[in-house]
Amino acid sequence: MDRSKLEEILKSLKARGVEHDPGLPPCPLCGAPALRGYDFRAPHRIEHNCECAYREPERYMAEVGRVWRRWHWSRVYRESLPPRYREYLEKPWEGRQKEVVEVLRSWQEEGGVVYLFGPPGTGKTHLAVRAAWGKAQEGRRALFLSEWEFYERARLEAVGPEAPRLLDQVDVLVLDDLGKARLTPFAAEVLFGLVEAAHRKSLDLLLTSNYPPEETARRLGENAEALLSRVERAVEVRGPDRRRKEVAVR
Prior knowledge:
- By secondary structure, the chain is of the alpha/beta class.
- The protein folds into two domains: 75 residues, no CATH class; 158 residues, P-loop containing nucleotide triphosphate hydrolases (Rossmann fold), CATH 3.40.50.
- It is built from eleven helices and five strands; from the N terminus they run ααααβαβααβαβααβα.
- Helix 8 links the parallel strand 3 and strand 4.
- Helix 4 runs parallel beside helix 5.
- The N and C termini lie far apart (64 Å).
């Protein structure tokens, strides 16, 4: 495109009466607001009230792609959370049990398999949600599943070869409340397979449970020792039942 044509396009853009969408990210180069009417479901489905896309198209699209990954996977992760857990994304965790926070910060940087356990109401899910949120905001493909949801997805994969495989869709997984569901031979097999995949660095896995890892592992029978050897860090979350405190305040 010649220079005169480019200038004509830029002038027409400036002359538009445009509306901005504060729900979409601004231009990554100059900070100009996004225009209303776009959904950003893909990197090219956004436009900003600036000239960057025309003056520096390659740089602009590369940066928009990075922004899209962070924006998209943050939304996917947030939507995977039960509504009652979404408030955890805004709650601070720095003042919580120091040892646990240090382990989770290390997991955010290094990945692997971490197992949080302790009595109900001590904040295991809150900590896990926040730790994986940090990875989602970096553009990692993060997801939150309850134990039941995980087994249900595994059953769908087993009966329908065309069903998308979980391990092909995520880089980061929070598996919450491990130990509540009845552990059938099939469930034991897919649970061990998940931990094995995380141990091989196919994904970063964060497990929460009311039960110590030894107790959970015993339910796997002959694979108990193998499971324990693949859990790289297990840490107990201690403290009072915060849910009872919240009920008392209400």
